[in-house]
Amino acid sequence: MYPEILLHIDGVWTKGSGSRSQPVLNPASGEAIGAVPYAEKADLDQALAAAERGFAVWRKVSSFERYKIMRRAADILRSRAEDIARIMVQEQGKPLAEAKGEILFGGDIIDWFAEEGRRTYGRVVPARAENIYQLVLKEPVGPVAAFTPWNFPINQAVRKISIALAAGCSVILKGPEETPGSCAELVRAYADAGVPAGVINLVFGIPAEISEYLIPHPIIRKVSFTGSTAVGKHLAMLAGQHMKRVTMELGGHAPAIVFEDADIDQAVKILAANKFRNAGQICVAPTRFLVQEKVYGTFVDKFTAAAKAIRVGDGLEKETGMGPLANTRRVEAMEAFVADAVSQGARIKTGGKRIGNKGNFFEPTVMTDVPLSARIMSEEPFGPIAPIMPFTDFDGLVAEANRLDYGLAAYAYTRSAKTATAIGAALESGMVSINHHGLALPEVPFGGIKDSGYGSEGGSEALDGYLNTKFVTQFGS
Question: Helices 417-426 and 394-401 meet at what angle, rounded to 10?
C-alpha cells in the first residue's frame, strides 16, 4: 500500500494549512497512487520558526550525542528497507533491488557523517607573544534550506540531512513532489530516532514558490541544491543576493573513455551497468562514450549486446533489470534526442523507441555515427541512451572530453599506468574514476566544477560548507 503523504513541521506530521496538492503517479502504469500536499506560506513560516528553535537546541547537543541519535536513525532506516523500497519502486520506477540498495546505502551515509561530525576539530595557532591564545573554532552555520530531486529520493536527501545534522544545523527539506513517500520515510526514521522537534522539517509544493520564499529569508543561513544547471544558477544567484552559503550539485555529461589497451569486457560490463542503472537518470551516469578506433567496433558490438540483454519492466517484478522512466517528460525527451540524432545521420544499433503505451518505458538505446551537432552530444540526456563515437589521438580526445561546460564526473579505461595518470590529470572534472566505478562513497568527495556546481556532498569536505570558522584570540596574564 502507498502511504498517505504529509508534511513534517516542528515534529508533527500534518496535511498543511491549504488544500492544494498534486497526484503521485506510478511510472509503470501511469496511474495515480496517492497525492502530495503543497505547503502554503503559513506552513513555510511555521517550518522557519521551528528550524530556528530547533537550531538553538541542536547546536548545543554535543557531537557525541548527535552521533548516537544519527546512528539510531541509520539502524531504523535499515530495518524498514523492504517496506520503503516498495514505496520507492511504486513512485519512482527503479527495480526493487536498486531501491533497497539505495536505502541501505543511505544508512551507511548517516553512519559515516555521524562519525565525521565528532571530528570537526578546530586548532590552536601558535602566538607571537606570551600569554596569548589563538583559537580557530568551527561552528554550525545555522538553519539550512535543502532541495532534493526525484531520481534518488533517499540518496540525495540523506546526504543533505546527515551533513547538516552532523555539523549541528537544522534543516528545512523541500522534498521531491514526484517521489515523496520514500523521502518522507527517511525523515520518519530520523524523527523516530529522537531528533528533536524542529531540527528536521519536510515540505512539498511548487518548487519556485518554496525556493523564492525560503532562500531570501533571514532565518536561512545555508542553501543546498541538487538538480539541473539552469535551476541551480537561478538559485545560486538568489542566494548570492542575500550572501547565503551554497552547495550546488548540478547536471553532468560524463565522458566514458575506452583506450585501445583496456580490458574491453570489463569496461563493457561496468559501463553498461552504470549507463542503464536507474534508467540512466543519474547525474554521474556515463553519457558520451569515446572509444579508441582500434577497439571501437568490438566495444560497440559488445556494449550493444549488453543493452539488448536488459529486461525492461515493472520494478516490482523480480526479472526486471531496468524500470520505467520516472515521468512522461523523460520519455518525450528521449524521443526528441533520438529523432534529432537520426535526422543528422546517427545510426541506432539497438532501442530508440518507447515500449508500449502504458507507463513510461523506453528501450535501452545505443547509437553510433552521432555528430557533435546532435543535441545529445551537448545536452544532458538523463535517460537510457548511449551515443558511442571513435577517437584517434590523445589530444583530440581530451579536447572533446573537456568541450562542454559540465564537469561533474568522467570515466576512463586503460591498462597503462602512464595513460591513466595522463588522462586523470587532463580531464576537467570534479570526479574521475579509472578502471572502475568508484564514485559517491560517503567518505569521498562528491561534487563538480564549471557548470556542474561547487561544494561537496561527500567526504570530510562536505562538512566545510555547513560550518563557520571563528577566530578567537585572548590575552591573559
Answer: 40
> Distance of alpha carbon 75 from its chain centroid, rounded?
22
Residue 287 to residue 255: CA distance in whole angstroms: 6
In this structure, what CATH number is given to the domain that contains residue 348? 3.40.309.10
Distance CA 147, CA 215 (A): 11
For residue 446, give the nearest of 460, 427, 435 by alpha carbon: 460
Total domains, the chain? 2
220 and 289 both lie in a single domain: no
Alpha-carbon distance 5 to 90, whole Å? 14
Residues 3, 153: Cα–Cα separation, whole Å:
15
The answer to the question of residue 447 being in a domain is no
Same domain flag for 214 and 127: yes
What's 20's DSSP letter?
-
For residue range 273-314, list pLDDT tens digits in order: 999 999 999 999 999 999 999 999 999 999 999 999 999 999
Q: What is the pTM of this model?
A: 0.97
- 65 part of the active site: no
Whole-number Å distance between alpha carbons of 215 and 95: 35
> Which of 138-162 are b and which e, b meaning 16 or more Cβ less than 10 Å from the residue's Cβ?
bebbbbbbbbbbbbbbbbbbbbbbb
What's the domain range around 317? 254-441
| Domain shared by 315 and 223, yes or no | no
Q: How many CB atoms lie within 10 A of CB 237?
A: 10
Q: Quick check: 447 and 294 in contact, CB under 8 A?
A: no
Q: Which candidate in 283, 363, 380, 457 is catalytic?
A: 283
Catalytic site includes residue 283: yes
Residue 1 maps to a domain: no
CA torsion sign, 329 to 361 to 315 to 300?
negative
Give me the residues paired with residue 286 across strands.
254
Does 25 fall in a domain? yes
Counting Cβ atoms within 10 Å, is residue 476 exposed (0-12), middle (13-18) or buried (19+)?
exposed
Reported as a single tens digit per residue, the pLDDT across 50-97 is 999 999 999 999 999 999 999 999 999 999 999 999 999 999 999 999
Identified catalytic residue from 249, 380, 428, 457: 249
SS3 string, 124-159, reads ECCCCCCCEEEEEEEEECCCEEEECCCCCCCHHHHH
